[in-house]
Structures are given as structure tokens and as C-alpha cells.
TrEMBL record:
Any one GO biological process: response to oxidative stress
Keyword Coiled coil: no
Taxon lineage: Bacteria, Bacillati, Actinomycetota, Actinomycetes, Kitasatosporales
Protein name in UniProt: Alkyl hydroperoxide reductase AhpD
Quaternary context: Homotrimer.
Family statement: Belongs to the AhpD family.
Length: 187
């Protein structure tokens, strides 16, 4: 079932973020309303992606506005799984991005020795967790993780448009967070 952001409180969170954006970021205002407010993703995929990306954005303002809506729109296990996706990808994105960037490829042959159990048992549909992990990986800029999660999603039959929606949400939330944090420092 696909849903659109329709609850009054959902709109209020988006409206508050849009109102906080400066006029020069008008495109971000429009994109925020489009990627979240008019999303055709199922509720759990949408709000799990929003929450994981809000955490990954490192923006206090974005997280403060979007977290209550995510909590209201997600079952407790999905809420926790979205937070887990942000947490585990914060670690994995650094580790695997580093392996990719190092010219000495021997590091890639070494055992990582890092616990990643939540990836195998996230407590929600595997596709949803993979989508959230992909979106966080987009924010954190890990090409190896992006490729890995995209391949899992495609093998599971997820359309490219759904995958694209996740990284569009990531792009917009990250841009809103960067803009609001910059405005707070410049004020």
C-alpha cells in the first residue's frame, strides 16, 4: 500500500522545516515537500528512510522536526530498525569507504572483525532495512555500501524508481540539514 503524507502533524513537521529554510534554498523547500510529502513509498519504507536519514544528517533541527513524525508513523520495531540502520551504517560506511580508498588492497583481505548482526536480523522486512541502509550510505558517501545494498534490493525485485526515491530522500534531508546548520552558524 502506498501512502502520501496526509496527517496534519506530518505536514506541520515539513512546514516547520520549509519555513526555517532561507529564501535562497527555495528548491529545497519544494523538494522536501515532494520527496516526503508526496512520496508513494509505503508508510514504513518512507518514514524509516526519513528517520535513518535524519539521524545520518547530523542536523539537530532536522532530527527534532522529523523524529516525532517517524515515531508516530512507524511501529516500534520499525522505529528501532531505522535507528539501527543509521547506527550500523555509520560504522560500515567509514570502514568500507576506507577499504575502497586505500591504495593497499590487502586491507580488503583482512577479516573485519566488526559486529554487524543487525543486518542479518533487523526485526523488519529485509528490503526495508536494506533501503534505509542504502539511503544512509548515500549520505555518508560509501560507494561500496551503496553498490552492495542496491544489488540486494534489485535481487529482491525492488524497482529502480523505489531505490532512487530512497537516495532522493537522503539527498534532500542532507541538504536541508546542511543549510539549516549553516544558517544557524551564520546568524
Amino acid at each position: 500500500m502506498r501512502t502520501r503524507c496526509s496527517r496534519a502533524s506530518d505536514r506541520m513537521a515539513l512546514d516547520a522545516l520549509k519555513a526555517a529554510l532561507p529564501e535562497y534554498a527555495k528548491d529545497l523547500k519544494l523538494n522536501l515537500g515532494s520527496v516526503i510529502g508526496n512520496s508513494e513509498l509505503p508508510q514504513q519504507q518512507l518514514w524509516g528512510t526519513v528517520l535513518a536519514c535524519a539521524i545520518a544528517s547530523r542536523s539537530e533541527r532536522v532530527l527534532a522536526e522529523l523524529e516525532p513524525e517517524a515515531r508516530a508513523n512507524l511501529k516500534p520495531e520499525a522505529y528501532d530498525a531505522a535507528k539501527a540502520a543509521a547506527a550500523i551504517m555509520a560504522m560500515n560506511n567509514v570502514y568500507y569507504r576506507t577499504l575502497h580508498l586505500l591504495s593497499d588492497k590487502e586491507y580488503g583481505t583482512l577479516r573485519a572483525g566488526l559486529r554487524m548482526n543487525v543486518i542479518g536480523n533487523p526485526g523488519v522486512e529485509k528490503v526495508d532495512f536494506e533501503l534505509w541502509s542504502l539511503a544512509v550510505s548515500a549520505i555518508n558517501g560509501c560507494g561500496q555500501c551503496l553498490d552492495s545494498h542496491e544489488q540486494v534490493l534489485r535481487k529482491a525485485g525492488v524497482d529502480r524508481e523505489v531505490i532512487q526515491t530512497a537516495f532522493k530522500i537522503a539527498a534532500v534531508i542532507q541538504a536541508v540539514g546542511v543549510t539549516l546548520e549553516a544558517e544557524g552558524r551564520l546568524a
